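dumping this here before i forget
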Amino acid sequence: MSRTSFRTRLALASGSALLLAALATGCGAISSMLDGSGNGGRGGSGTDGDTASVFDLAVGDCLNEPEASDGEIYDVEIVPCADLHDYEVYHDYALDLGASWPGKADIEADAQATCAEEFETFVGVPFNESAALWYSYYSPTETSWEQGDDKIQCLVYEASDDEGASLVEVEGTLEGSKR
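structure:
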């Protein structure tokens, strides 16, 4: 089984929200600095090079950009949040879209809405007001859905460009950073 990954950014234009989404071949989570002591959901117990299944990620885990195989993610490198890392898992939830494969578009719409909403809860500012922070998410593939995977994992990260494509490594957690 594998998961797909998306990076997305919400922008306002002409008074209406435009969703700018780009399929990424690998994503993860980010973190930045609140007080520099961010720990992963496992108490920051990850050590450099700890590899875990993407299905085992938990809220608070920090990780580096994973390698994608055929555009899908299988394993990720979990690191202590106090160390430099690319992403931080800030929210996860089970989709409530029925038992049958709902289709990629419905999954994307649900994930984008929920991750944007939870971004504000985690970071402390609405997503469309954040200058440097972006979100990404891992979502089920049709194959993983058929095997019971209905989980979305929302990931926050920092980028140095206006499209969220140039990752910036951070230390600590972005929780409550209001950036």
